[in-house]
Amino acid sequence: MQIQHLKLLNFRNYERLEIDFGPAFNLIYGKNGMGKTNLIESIYVLALTKSFRGTVDKVVIMNNKELTRIEADIVQKRSNNFKLIITGDGKTAKINNNKVAKLSDYISMIGVILFNPGDLRIIKDSPSIRRKSLNVDISQLNNTYLKYLSSYNKILKQRNAYLKTMSINGLASTDYLDSLTEKMIGYGIKVFQERKKILELINLKIGKIYNSIMQQGSLTIEYESDYEGKNQDELFKLYKKNLKRDLFLGKTEMGIHKDDYIFSVDDKPLKDYGSEGQQKNAIIAYKFALIDIYKDYKGEMPILILDDLFSELDYEKINNILKLINDEMQILITTTEIDKIEEAIVNKAKKFYVNNGIIEEV
């Protein structure tokens, strides 16, 4: 998969931009704050319909403009034109000028694996951050997963609302609640099974990749879920057992919305015992494992984006990472320090210099 031609209108600090990328390495360099990350963010938004920065949709629209449009010609098994328009009222996606009825059907059409320094939050922050990241990763492999997750969250919201109604009004009958619970479990099991499968596949690959970067240490991921080892009936009994607690709290305290997964090196949690360098390289290993899985699922390589990857990494680690890159893949690398990158890669890469929203091919 390759992005050939990108057109931006009113995206962040780019009022109008057209750029042609090379099929392999693309180096995007310049000082901080000039628009490098904005450029690769536009590609991510085109693929996933949301920013990796965690901002509300309309923030990507240039100040005093009514909309932003991202458009790209992307070579997959054949060439397709993708377009995403964002206004204050919502988003519209088009493929070859045909409007896509549901965004959930659009996501997974463009494969993008991104590393951004903010990804360290996956290890450092709360389980909700890890779940959100995993949801994005799986949705690119299987958009049916998004439909299961959306259905689960919708019923969870209904169940929580009814728990509050029962508590306030002193309702004794649980027939409606039981019906919601059964439906929620059904979708929850599907989400759990997909998460478990993907994390097991990642675990088969991540240790070897991490060791090739760090030259030491054994990296693993442990998945934690209330649904582990339980069937539908067993889960239903647990929800019934926990009903008094849920009524007291006015919300559902058990389920796949509480899932977590823990990164460990040599059986020690990275969140508590790992250095920032170990954590960064663990996330990189995770992303490269995803690339292999994406190829297995889709039969083609995703687009790889490495945003500010090389800050605070030594030359040896950088080049260990670059050796992992498959020659079949299109890679976009942003950096402030082009001299940190192996000369052979710099020489064969297509290079773009970014200065205050103006991009010059070098």
**Count of individual helical segments:** 12
Trace the largest sheet across and list its strands: 2-1-4-5-6-7
Q: How is the main sheet built?
A: 6 strands, antiparallel
Could you give me the name of the CATH homologous superfamily of the largest domain?
Answer: RecF/RecN/SMC, N-terminal domain
Rg computed from alpha carbons, rounded to a whole number of angstroms: 22 Å
Q: What integer is the average pLDDT?
A: 93
Low-confidence spans: pLDDT under 50, at least 5 residues? none
CATH topology grouping of the largest domain: Glutathione S-transferase Yfyf (Class Pi), Chain A, domain 2
SSE topology string: EEEHEEEEHEHHHHEHHEEHHEHEHEE
Give the CA-CA distance, first to last residue.
24 Å
Shape: globular
Please report which band the strand proportion falls in: under 5%, 5-15%, 15-25%, 25-35%, 35-45% or over 45%.
Answer: 15-25%
Q: Which oligomerization state do the chains in this entry correspond to? A: single chain
What is the number of strand segments?
Answer: 15
CATH architecture of the largest domain: Up-down Bundle
Q: Helix- and strand-based class?
A: alpha/beta
- How many domains make up the 3D coordinates? 2
> In which range does the helix fraction lie?
40-55%
Q: Could you outline the blueprint of secondary structure elements for this entry?
A:
Layout: E1 2-11, E2 14-20, E3 25-29, H1 36-48, E4 67-75, E5 79-87, E6 90-95, E7 98-99, H2 103-106, E8 112-115, H3 121-124, H4 127-141, H5 143-169, H6 175-214, E9 219-224, H7 232-241, H8 243-249, E10 260-265, E11 268-269, H9 270-273, H10 276-298, E12 303-307, H11 315-322, E13 331-335, H12 343-348, E14 350-355, E15 358-361
Helix pairs in contact: 4-5, 5-6, 5-8, 6-7, 6-10
